[in-house]
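Render this sequence as a predicted structure.
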Amino acid sequence: MPGIDGATVIRRVRLDIALRDIACVMLTGSSEIGAELRALDAGADAFVRKEEDVSLVLARVAAVLRAAPDRPSATTAVSNQAPKKILVIDEDPSFLDQMASVLRQDGYDPILGRSGQEALELLGLLGVDCIVLSATITALDGWEICRRIKGAPMIREVPLLLLTAPQDGDAVLAGLAAGADDCVPRTIEHPLLKARVRAQIRRKQFEDENRRVRVDLLQRELQEAETRAARELAETRARLIAELERKNDELEAFTHSVSHDLRAPLRAIQGYAAALYADHLDKLNEEGRHDLTRLRSAAQRMDDLITDMLALSRIQRADLVGGEIDLSQVAAAAAADLQQREPARRVDVRIAPGMIDRADPKLMRIVFDNLLGNAWKFTAGSAQPRVEVGAQPGPRPRTYFVRDNGAGFDMKRADRLFRPFQRLHTSAEFTGTGIGLATVARVIDRHGGRVWAESTLGAGAAFFFTLDAVSPTAGAR
């Protein structure tokens, strides 16, 4: 080119960090080997003579473009001081020895193979930086080996130079079509071969640099995405916490309203009903006395319902106090209270000793009050009422149970058990508000466990629950 030669242009391109990874093919009319060596040493990826057939020129350009990496906007030079490993495959031992000597003089670490099968086996065991393959080997020819190497995902990116017969354009076209990165005449023109090897290794370094840059960019994008996600999650969590606090405030207000505004007129109804019963019962006929009794019973049921609703709401807001407790003692205290309230009843209560676990003692008392209270209530019709409290053997979290031989329930309706206000028996059969088991489920959930039940109608019921470890001062929010 006028004013500047092609080698200088390529050299300047390679020195420009923004342009250095652009594929460069030197096109020249010179037939001297020295011209090709200068071009390759300057940084050209391939060398093409003008007198060569157009199809051969296009094949070399296609091979270079096929090997060119997807480029980012800029790259960073990377040097590797370790000797580059060059796999040379040829059937001629003397040629292999000459190639090994030349490559060692140039600072390379040659690995020699004498057949195509041996080459494939070596590539499966060793990592190499470049492959020099003779196209004339027998048994498994060079073109087939080339196709197999370029079809293997783990080694396809290793630069491959195919050694062909001099002046054999068809062999060069076949080699490039098979996937070779370059084709070199199989002669003892070692300077030319070394220049081609350097060009391919340099190209591979640029690919590796680009790959590292792409990986770094992807990692940075991933880190930025994770940072954004974490920030958005924190913002969402803050909004949810604020909303939860607002709902809790509303619940506090509702609880206050229930405990004062609703209970005040209820107390008045109960008071007047009690006064009527005490002062005027003898003035009422049978129907009047029946209605008054029903009025007092309904008022008491409403009072019990409000009490249970307040207890359920407090469970969710109460702070958990963790620590090792003896669940056997907690269950025994609950059973003793039941016996004290009904001293005339005789229920065989059996509580396994030594049930130690981490839980909130006050909340676990609520659990046993409700589970044992249910067992006590639903065994009222049993000839020999029996209640058992224990733990199943096995690793933690342990499974605890409260089992009775009472009325039981239909398992088809078991999904309603732990919902508020859901009852599986009528008020005429057994009294209750439908809040107790919902309260149990809320307490067990606060402890990170689960609760379930098994039963046969008329043959008793068993309630099971687990507890996960509770931190010493786990808050409600």
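Summary. Residues 190-280 form the longest helix (91 residues). Residues 319-477 form a domain with the Heat Shock Protein 90 fold (CATH 3.30.565.10).
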